[in-house]
Amino acid sequence: GLVYGPSHRLLRELRCAADFGLARIDAPPTSTSTNAAAYALHPGIADAALQAAVAYKSAAEGHDRVHAAIPFALASLSIHRAPIGAIYARVRLSRDIADAVDVDLIDEHGGGRVCAAFRGLSVRPTAVTDTVSATIAIAADSTAAKTSAAETIAIPASLSETLYAPEWRAQPTM
Length: 174
Description:
The structure is a single chain. This protein is mainly beta and 174 residues long. Helices cover 10% and strands 41% of the residues. The longest helix has 18 residues, at 43-60. The radius of gyration is 16 Å and the shape is globular. The two termini are 13 Å apart.
């Protein structure tokens, strides 16, 4: 399964509406990413944006469950500048490529300007036997239920009130 280290546990929440998703992404922790400033786009931030895209794509396609998927193809990636401070990923269905999504990374320092843009991101579902070593809390109407991410996760009927928040658990060292 997937075991995420601290610098890849950056996705904090995802809200989905009918035509877009908005994810809050934390900056990489300085204790685990001392060279974060060396990256135009830190790998953990890029990975969190991809996680948000997978979850939104399932919701946008009308699936009642989110399944694990992996990036398969990307038409283009434009990095305008490194994000600073709080980071948000805006995800929507691609206007140019069928069965793909576009993701814009925006930070609060740029006045809403895009830091990086993923265009034409296609994902493919993983095998049913794949596992993920995270627990996902689903909060809707101030109630939370926990389920293993290796299982599928039900999407509430009202996507505009949906909030996904990962809860990371320590895993035994190998």
